[in-house]
Design brief:
The protein is mainly alpha-helical. The chain is about 45% helix and about 0% strand.
């Protein structure tokens, strides 16, 4: 439960964050949070991103990277300004798809993946990119059935997915599996799913749950330091907080209780909470952004406090 002293702090925020606080932490009636959510299209962060859309339906002139991007290795990180990243952000902020009416058609006509110039709504070979395309396509009304079927066909023998499968990897990745699961969950929630998509999602979830969301199956040790790297925006990065919020949504959608195998991961989330009830911002992924949407590293993050609190509330309920 959110501490009373934090409520004014959390509510004093952009509509993209505030409506989720109202719905998930304060349990306000729908007429309250839906009114706030509607403001995402006309105020603050959401309106700023909408205004940056190109006439051809893209952002920054590219599908996954800005037009003219130099693919030479650099320490500056990946830019986060192109079409897919911007759509991910707007969707996660709860923007009404009506504000992007016609965008699906424009992208079908004008946007191609940097990988082999493939058509936007057909996806490509990267699990994470395909998962985001499924989520964005369902949101905007594009036909992404082919990509959903691709996920069923490309699940690895151990249950999950790995974006490096094209390089021959036969072992699943925590990052790729979580992002793939998000795409399948969106499909199942929007359409009811199929026997094949539900089975694939269950297998991917089992891959993470058998590992307690953060352990190596072989040794029981944490798979890497990034399991506790809590940073907003999440982008593609795996953490136990990112994973736990997925399992919260999955369990609520399926009408099942939390899986007890998550207990140790939940304690890691709880341990990161500060005495005042907030979670501090971690070290963000480097790269160009349109504008900042959260605080610098080390400062109390309203976004992470939303995520952390609602995960703990769900677990405790």
């Amino acid at each position: 439960m959110v501490a009373d002293a934090l409520i004014p702090w959390l509510l004093d925020s952009d509509p993209a964050l505030r409506w989720q606080v109202e719905r998930d932490l304060l349990h306000e009636p729908p007429e309250v949070w839906e009114a706030t959510r509607a403001r995402v299209a006309t105020e603050g962060f959401g309106a700023r991103l909408l205004a940056l859309q190109d006439p051809d339906g893209q952002w920054a002139g590219g599908a996954f990277f800005p037009a003219g991007h130099d693919f030479s290795p650099t320490a500056d990180g990946q830019p986060w300004t192109a079409t897919t990243w911007t759509l991910n952000t707007l969707r996660e902020w709860g923007l009404d798809a009506a504000a992007l009416r016609g965008t699906a058609e424009l992208l079908a006509k004008n946007s191609r993946w940097e990988y082999e110039d493939l058509p936007y709504w057909g996806g490509e070979v990267d699990c994470c990119i395909n998962a985001w395309t499924v989520e964005n396509g369902l949101w905007l009304g594009a036909d992404v059935t082919g990509i959903v079927e691709w996920f069923v066909a490309h699940r690895l023998p151990d249950g999950g997915w790995n974006c490096e499968w094209v390089e021959g990897s036969a072992r699943s990745s925590f990052h790729s599996t979580l992002n793939s699961l998000k795409g399948l969950l969106a499909y199942d929630l929007a359409t009811g799913g199929t026997e094949a998509t539900r089975a694939a999602r269950r297998a991917g979830e089992e891959y993470l749950l058998r590992r307690g969301l953060f352990r190596r199956l072989s040794t029981g040790e944490p798979v890497a330091p990034w399991v506790d790297r809590f940073v907003y925006p999440f982008r593609w990065l795996y953490s136990v907080l990112n994973a736990a919020d997925y399992f919260r949504r999955s369990a609520l959608g399926d009408g099942v209780p939390p899986d007890p195998r998550m207990a140790a991961a939940i304690e890691r989330i709880r341990a990161a909470r500060q005495p005042d009830g907030t979670w501090p911002q971690g070290r963000p992924l480097a790269g160009e952004v349109w504008f900042e949407v959260d605080v610098p590293e080390g400062e109390p993050s309203k976004w992470l406090t939303l995520y952390g609190t609602r995960v703990l509330d769900w677990w405790g309920s």
